[in-house]
Design goal:
This protein is mostly helical. It has helices at 3-22, 25-33, 40-47, 55-62, 67-80, 83-102, 108-121, 128-134, 142-168, 172-180, 182-187, 197-218, 224-241. The radius of gyration is 17 Å and the shape is globular.
């Protein structure tokens, strides 16, 4: 399997899996055990790998969200605990979710090892969330290690996408509206009136092409058999988790 083929086969399912583990009862239970609930479960859980940093740093890292939305979540995170503890709790919940959702699948250790080879060869360039999650301890359990790898791959592509959006000159709200529509822009904390999505879509597609090209490159770090195994494993996980 070529780098282009594995990138194409895995991009959408890895993106879609995020909605499963971010909102799973298992992940939220782990966060609750550590004292985190509500918005800190996402903002602190995802951004806590950055450490106890100023809000502007987190706003920059999340990129596509309204600054006021991230500021609220980061403030509440610090009221409920520390950002580092929030990230650790999220990672624990992610591992539990992975084990109970697809822990029965074969080849997970090989998937996690192949993904780690990709990460070892892909240095972060202005990708703080990818760098932070890449630095998280790798669980011994193959399913949990695979869950973490899926999360890191998601952050890696997100970082490249932010680079692409910047390169084509899109603002955060334009990017969200172009890809997801005005209703979803509100979920990202933005308030209308929103721009017309249609003229923005060709520009957003240019950013997607930049993103795809960069993801194609990272899979050059592993061989064809490893790429095929990663694609097959993501397909199997998606079949179980997404239905």
């Amino acid at each position: 399997m070529t780098p282009e083929e594995v990138a194409a086969a895995t991009a959408l399912p890895i993106a879609m899996l995020g909605s499963k583990y971010y909102f799973s009862e298992t992940t939220n239970a782990a966060l609750a055990e550590a004292g985190f609930s509500g918005l800190p479960g996402y903002v602190g859980g995802r951004g806590g790998v950055l450490g106890d940093v100023a809000t502007d740093v987190v706003v920059s890292a999340f990129a596509l969200f309204s600054p006021s939305f991230i500021e609220m979540g980061w403030t509440q995170t610090k009221e409920q605990g520390t950002p580092t503890d929030a990230a650790a709790a999220f990672a624990e919940g992610l591992g539990r979710w992975a084990a109970e959702t697809f822990g029965h699948l074969d080849g997970l250790a090989d998937f996690a090892a192949a993904a780690r080879a990709v990460f070892d060869a892909t240095n972060p360039m202005s990708q703080p969330l990818y760098a932070g999650w890449r630095a998280m301890p790798v669980p011994d359990d193959p399913a949990a290690a695979t869950g973490l790898a899926l999360k890191i791959l998601r952050e890696l592509r997100f970082g490249f996408h932010v680079h692409g959006l910047s390169a084509v000159g899109m603002t955060p709200v334009e990017a969200v509206v172009a890809q997801l529509g005005p209703e979803q822009a509100q979920m990202f904390g933005w308030a209308g009136p929103f721009p017309d999505p249609e003229p923005l879509k060709p520009v957003h597609q240019q950013a997607e092409e930049i993103t795809t090209a960069r993801m194609n490159e990272v899979y050059e770090a592993i061989d064809a058999d490893q790429r095929a195994h990663m694609a097959a494993t993501v397909k199997a996980i998606a079949a179980v988790a997404l239905g």
